[in-house]
């Protein structure tokens, strides 16, 4: 295929992320809909019978390991390997927050499926990283990250957790991280809205990622 040099340079990055999100999304769907876990239809269930030091089922531990490994690598990759974009600093912060959330959730057993639920509901393409332009995942990003994520995950962690475990540890710490991720989801969604607006107003003659710097800017 006849790829432009800048697109060819991004091909390994996009291919790797496509592979990872296909595998992790499929595994998340399996856990949510093809096992006995009621997390999707009953999000507060992640806090049922919660206790310190509780065992984490092997299949959920695999989800933790998969996500932690990826986001640990992504911190390095975003800083030193991937194409630098206007949102790269926010992307780095996203990876750090996500890794911290998942790792501490596992360490403190903050709801046996808390990290799983957040990951599985967010396993549509991660912040503009799979395909360009960002509008390629417009419906999925809105539905998963701006509707289901607050409706399922934030409701369970912010409200239900206190009802079921009044003295649950690190309540504000975990919910602060989840709210930061929500703000980032809104930030990236605005990029998609900007792209769609430019297309509808005829300001974009070819498909470009609005997060990327102009050629002139990159030379400065």
Automatic annotation (TrEMBL):
InterPro entries: Lag1/Lac1-like, TLC-dom. GO terms for biological process: ceramide biosynthetic process. One of its GO terms (cellular component) is membrane. It comes from the Eukaryota. Keywords: Membrane, Transmembrane, Transmembrane helix. Residues 9-201 form the TLC domain. The chain crosses the membrane at residues 18-40, 60-77, 89-108, 168-196. Pathway: Lipid metabolism; sphingolipid metabolism; Sphingolipid metabolism. One of its GO terms (molecular function) is sphingosine N-acyltransferase activity. It is a multi-pass membrane protein. It catalyses: sphinganine + octadecanoyl-CoA = N-(octadecanoyl)-sphinganine + CoA + H(+). It is found in: Membrane. This is CERS1 synthase. It comes from Jacana jacana (Wattled jacana). The lineage of its organism: Eukaryota, Metazoa, Chordata, Craniata, Vertebrata. The gene is Cers1.
